[in-house]
């Protein structure tokens, strides 16, 4: 089925669907396991998404902020043209956690979605793009949305950093924490998803299940399966809370 052939008649603010953007299909499928009912695959330029009768569309947009932004923007545009605009965008997936606040297997909900390496290196240290006189480096989800998501899932709230290069040394982990004291986790897509959502005037949320500590790269210590299971469990609790927020709290 072609998404742009969908009709949006009868949609109201209270029934606007939710777009969930992940990086890769395994994360998308972990979210899908938490949602009831059958899924329908819908074509999009450059890919496809899964739609459930529960009002959630699931998109594996690709790895990194650029693909995440492009894929999310494409889905938002197609939905708007079809007369079925989204009421909320969620960036979901697994990522690294800063110890001890975000241990492996825990959930983190972003109260700030920050591009950690968008800027310039100078002799005096890193300068974010905002200090160069343009752009933005942080998107903040609505406070009420963060609160609802945290209460529903038991997740900690804090800054989730978006990086283009996964942290693999203690020195870089320390530098990130020094620049972003409120950081709990890092991922590679949240800021890109948030940029697309902001361009369409749609609120955004980011949730991460922690698969590994941020720091020295040690694949043997990664617990991807545990993190995916935590993502499924967490989204099972999150989905009804998001539906309620999307309907009543905006």
From TrEMBL:
Is rRNA-binding among this UniProt entry's keywords?
no
Task: Name the Pfam families for this protein.
Answer: PNP_UDP_1 (PF01048)
Sorted alphabetically, which keywords does the UniProt record give? Hydrolase, Menaquinone biosynthesis
Q: Which InterPro entries match?
A: FL_hydrolase_MqnB, Nucleoside_phosphorylase_d, Nucleoside_phosphorylase_sf
Name the catalysed reactions: futalosine + H2O = dehypoxanthine futalosine + hypoxanthine
Specify the superkingdom: Bacteria
User: Part of which pathway?
Assistant: Quinol/quinone metabolism; menaquinone biosynthesis
- Entry's Gene Ontology molecular function annotations: hydrolase activity
Q: Where is the Nucleoside phosphorylase domain?
A: 62-219
Q: What is its EC number?
A: 3.2.2.26
**What SUPFAM superfamilies does this protein's entry cite?**
Purine and uridine phosphorylases (SSF53167)
Which PANTHER family does this entry report, sorted A to Z?
5'-METHYLTHIOADENOSINE/S-ADENOSYLHOMOCYSTEINE NUCLEOSIDASE, FUTALOSINE HYDROLASE
Q: What does this protein do?
A: Catalyzes the hydrolysis of futalosine (FL) to dehypoxanthine futalosine (DHFL) and hypoxanthine, a step in the biosynthesis of menaquinone (MK, vitamin K2).
Family, similarity comment: Belongs to the PNP/UDP phosphorylase family. Futalosine hydrolase subfamily.
Q: Which NCBIfam families match?
A: fut_nucase, PRK08236.1
* Name used for this protein in its record: Futalosine hydrolase
The beginning of the lineage is:
Bacteria, Bacillati, Actinomycetota, Actinomycetes, Kitasatosporales
């Amino acid at each position: 089925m072609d998404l742009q052939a969908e009709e949006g008649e009868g949609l109201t603010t209270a029934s606007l669907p939710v777009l969930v953007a992940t990086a890769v299909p395994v994360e998308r499928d972990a979210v899908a396991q938490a949602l009831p009912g059958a899924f329908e695959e819908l074509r999009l330029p450059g890919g496809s998404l899964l739609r459930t009768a529960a009002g959630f569309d699931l998109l594996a947009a690709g790895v990194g902020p650029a693909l995440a932004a492009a894929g999310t923007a494409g889905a938002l545009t197609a939905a708007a043209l079809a007369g079925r605009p989204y009421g909320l965008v969620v960036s979901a997936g697994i990522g690294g956690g800063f110890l001890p606040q975000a241990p492996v297997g825990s959930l983190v909900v972003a109260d700030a979605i920050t591009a950690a390496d968008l800027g310039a290196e100078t002799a005096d240290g890193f300068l974010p793009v905002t200090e160069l006189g343009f752009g933005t480096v942080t998107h903040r989800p609505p406070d009420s949305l963060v609160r609802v998501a945290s209460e529903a899932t038991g997740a900690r709230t804090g800054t989730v950093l978006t990086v283009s290069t996964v942290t693999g040394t203690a020195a870089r982990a320390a530098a990130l924490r020094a620049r972003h004291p409120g950081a709990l986790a890092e991922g590679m897509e949240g800021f890109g998803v948030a940029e697309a959502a902001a361009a369409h005037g749609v609120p955004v949320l980011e949730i991460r299940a922690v698969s590994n500590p941020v720091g020295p790269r040690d694949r043997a210590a990664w617990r991807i399966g545990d993190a995916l299971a935590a993502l499924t469990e967490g989204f099972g609790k999150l989905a009804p809370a998001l539906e309620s927020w999307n309907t009543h709290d905006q």
